Amino acid sequence: MKRLIRDNALALCFLLLFLAALAGQSVAGMAAFNADQAAGGGSPVGWAEYVTSSSFAVDVAENWQSEYLQFFLYILITVWLIQRGSPESKKTGEEGLETDAEQKVGRYARPGSPAWAAAAPGWRRTVFSHSLGIAMGLIFLLSWLAQSVAGLAAYNTEQLAQLEDPVGWGGYVTSPDFWNRTLQNWQSEFLAVASMVLLAIFLRERGSPQSKKVGDPHAETASSG
């Protein structure tokens, strides 16, 4: 058990932080929701009712979709684009999909390589070669769809409360309300990635695989400490 925890400590740590943050969001969100209800003359709701509401679902989903969009784009863009001096980038001249030998696929696969990496050229190797990007893209699309559906329900609830007509899904996903919520998250994610890529050129965090070694020159690319 100790070895299992040690070998998976990074994932377990962030999963626990995720659950703690989600629980905190549900409590704080319920308080804010009930404050709005009281201000509008409505009745407060309990925790279980709030976490199953469209208001909570849209707040969660809009953050998830922006995070997975960030990873999806970063995984794809870093195949082709580089940033000299950043440990978040490949080295100059390594842009592109690389050779089969460099990627250890097909006849270059090792004894412990995944079966689909060692497969002959075909759909299995192609799918596995892009499986991380495909997974991130699918999760982004599903969370974006969840945000649009939950957001539509929350938006129409407000519309009816104000004695205004509800809108359809197409009307909502082309509305300023939807894109205002969406782009708020996207711009922060893109700024965070750009900051990490650039700051890691000149700054260090000793022992972190996201940082160059403390003594590495600023211009040195793709080395971790």
Q: Key terms for this structure?
A:
mainly alpha, 225 residues, 10 helices
What's a concise summary of this model?
The protein is an all-alpha fold and 225 residues long. It has helices at residues 2-7, 9-39, 47-51, 54-80, 100-103, 115-118, 123-129, 131-161, 169-173, 176-202.
How is this structure best described in words?
α4 runs antiparallel to α8 (131-161) and α4 packs across α10. The protein has helices spanning 2-7, 9-39, 47-51, 54-80, 100-103, 115-118, 123-129, 131-161, 169-173, 176-202. The protein has 225 residues and is an all-alpha fold. It has ten helices and no strands.
Radius of gyration: 23 Å
> Could you estimate the helical fraction of the residues in percent?
55-70%
* Tally of alpha and pi helices: 10
Ends apart, CA distance between termini: 28 Å
Overall shape: it is elongated
Number of strands: 0
- How would a crystallographer describe the biggest sheet? none
Summed over residues and divided by their number, the pLDDT gives a mean of: 90
Helix-strand layout with pairing:
Layout: H1 2-7, H2 9-39, H3 47-51, H4 54-80, H5 100-103, H6 115-118, H7 123-129, H8 131-161, H9 169-173, H10 176-202
Helix pairs in contact: 4-8, 4-10
